[in-house]
Amino acid sequence: MAAPPEARAEASLSADLRALASSPRELWTVYAMKLLESVAYFAIWSLLVIFLSDDHGFSDTAAGSVAGTWLTVISLVMFLAGFIADGLGIRRALVIAALSTAVGRGMLAFAGDKMTIYAALAASVWGIACMKPTMNAAVRSYTTPATVSFAFSFYYVLMNIGSLAQGPLITEFRKWFKGGASIAGVTFSSSQMVFLVGFVVSCVNVVLALSMRETKPAASSDKATKNPLTIAREVLREPAFWIFLGFIALLTFVRLILQHAHLTWPKYTLREFGQDFPFAYYWSINPAMIIVLTPVATALTRKYPPYPVITIGATITAFSVLAMAVSTTVAASVVFIVLLSIGEALWSPRLYEYTATIAPPGRESSYMGLSEIPLFLAKPFVGFLSGYLLSVYCPPAGPRDSRPMWLVIGLMTIAAPVCMLVFRRNIERRAPAEAGPKPEAAA
């Protein structure tokens, strides 16, 4: 008699953990860096528009535009950083990236005027942009075909543990330092105290990156060129890359929900449910669910190609936002987060795997970076749209009707899984074989 799915998943998880334990220590260093970076990045992302409005008087539209521009520049630099990271190598790329984030977050923690804020955000751009494709490439480089699926799932779980940590960090700091805090004669707002934590963990990442060995992973191509322009030309000539980019462009509509979750939803909750509403704690439902669901979902779906799994997950995520278009209640927000998380547990880790496995050896960072092109084009729009929708449907004062705001966002998002289903044959038929399930992984 066949074992039940739960038993098969448990056995698979145990085997995957044992296989992953034999990976080089550099993989575990990257995991530690990803965990710390996630704490800092998600905390700053969630607080940035609130910090700009509450501490520096930015309007909703202005705060959303600043945040959207910052995220857009990160995406712009990210698809350029991939070429440079492939040329620099993993260790050097991570050292430089960690230094950039430490400088930017240190400046943001001490920022007392708008120009310093702009300079701080600019200083952190390179580090954030370079770290993501380089870390993704490192996971691919320091794993084998038999462990790559679980390695990316574990990587995604660690990212969400970091995201989970930012929930209590933000909520408790907003309570403890509601009136600000003074350290060595310097006054910090509650938001700046959170940014200070981000600065400290970024400094730890500098030390971790320096501890990595310079040796080249065996999975890398010995013939890989070190010239970023040559790398760019080679990648852009590959037909597989353009098929991949079209797929990513469709998925971008779904990924924008996460932008609204950090730019639109926090202000929405504070205005609809009160300024003391613990939005960060409620958002912690998302990473908590991802931590639990991702390894199980990966174990149960690993025998299937990434595309159908990503499509199913994207459909669930796309419909999640409609809960708040029906009801302006805390319960509706919880339904939104729960459905979004179920879908995300399916599509997001498999997207990492899909991206890394279709890239030729030595070109992982380039593919990771260039995969941000569609999101780069969309981020300035979603930043402005977030501020505009809030000002129209959920202003800080006066009558509010937030349901149409979420209906607009939901209708824009649902277009993605529809198109993914319509164009499935075209994308799957021409996708490279490497993106499918591997015999070693399916065993």
Automatic annotation (TrEMBL):
InterPro entries: MFS (IPR011701), MFS_dom (IPR020846), MFS_trans_sf (IPR036259), MFS_Transporters (IPR050171). It comes from the Bacteria. It holds the Pfam family MFS_1. Residues 26-428 form the Major facilitator superfamily (MFS) profile domain. Signal peptide: none annotated. The chain crosses the membrane at residues 31-52, 64-84, 90-108, 115-134, 154-173, 193-212, 240-258, 279-301, 307-340, 373-393, 405-423. This is MFS transporter. It comes from Polyangium mundeleinium.
